[in-house]
Amino acid sequence: MTKSLFLVFAISLFLCSCSSSQTEQKTIGKIFKEDDVRKAGKLLQRLPIGLNLLNVTNNQADTVFVAVHGYASEGYEWIKPLQKIMQKGFQLYYYRWDWNTCPDYAERKLLAILEDLIVDKSQINHLNIFGHSYGGTLVAGLADETTAVTMSIHTVAAPMIPYERLINRCTNFNGYENMTIANNLFQWRTVKEKDGAFKNMAVDPQIVNIPNSTVIELPPQFQDGRRLGHNWSISWVIDNIFED
C-alpha cells in the first residue's frame, strides 16, 4: 500500500470511529427523552454489543452499576430502572451481549470486560451487577469469581438450573446448585404462576440452593394491583433497592 493510500485509509477509519461514537451518544440521549418506553427500549437495544456507558457522573464514582439484559430483550423493561439508578447519581453501564451464547462463555467474556473496566477506572471499588432473566443466568456465574474490587451480583427472574431449551443449546451448563460464592449474591425470584416465562414449566427454574446467598421472593402484584410478572420484575427490584 502506498503512503498516500495508507493515509486515506487511516483517516477514513478515524472518521468512521468518531461518527460511530457520536451516533451512540445521540442514541443514548434519545433513549431517556423518549416518553414511550417501548420506543425507548428499541433505541436501547440498538446500542453496540459490549459495555455502554449511559451517563457520566463524578458523584459516587467509586460504586458502578452494570445492567445486563435477558434473552430476546426488547429493552423496554430496563428504561425506568435505568432512569432510577442514574437519578441516584451512580455511574451506569448497559451491557449488550449475544443472547445466543451459552452462560459459561458469556460469563467469561463479561468478566474480562469488567476486569478491563476496573483497570481503566481506578476509582472503582465496588460493582453492582444486575442481570434480568437469561442475563441473570449469565451474571450468576460471576458470584464465584474474585476481582480487584468487591461485587454484588443480583439475579432477577433468572433461570438458575438447566431447562429444556437451554440444555438443547448448551449441553455443558449444569446450573448453580450448591455453588460456592466469593461475592454477595442476591436472588430476586418472581412468583412462578405469575411469571409468563416460567408458569408453564414443570418446575420453577429460579429455585436453587446456593449457600450464603440471599433470596428475596417478589410479591404476585404491584401495590396498585398490577400483575408482577417476568418483564416488570426488574422495575420492582430497583424501586425497592432505592426506596425513598
Question: In words, what does this structure look like?
Answer:
It contains 7 helices and 7 strands; from the N terminus they run ααββαβαβαβαββα. The protein has helices at 3-31, 37-44, 76-87, 103-120, 134-140, 164-169, 233-241; strands at 50-53, 63-68, 91-96, 126-132, 150-156, 184-189, 214-217. The chain has a 7-stranded mixed sheet. The longest helix has 29 residues, at 3-31. The model is unreliable at 1-20 (pLDDT under 50).
Provide a quick synopsis of the model.
The protein is α/β, with parallel strands linked by helices and 244 residues long. It has helices spanning 3-31, 37-44, 76-87, 103-120, 134-140, 164-169, 233-241, and strands spanning 50-53, 63-68, 91-96, 126-132, 150-156, 184-189, 214-217.
> Major beta sheet, specifics?
7 strands, mixed
Overall SS class: alpha/beta
Question: What ranges have pLDDT less than 50 throughout 5 or more consecutive residues?
Answer: 1-20
What is the rounded distance between the termini?
A: 62 Å
Question: What percentage of amino acids are in beta strands?
Answer: 15-25%
Shape: globular
* Largest sheet strand order: 1-3-2-4-5-6-7
Mean of the pLDDT scores?
Answer: 90
The portion of residues assigned to helices is 25-40%
Order of helices and strands: HHEEHEHEHEHEEH
Radius of gyration: 19 Å
Note the quaternary state here. Answer: single chain
Per DSSP E runs of 2 or more residues, the count of β-strands stands at 7
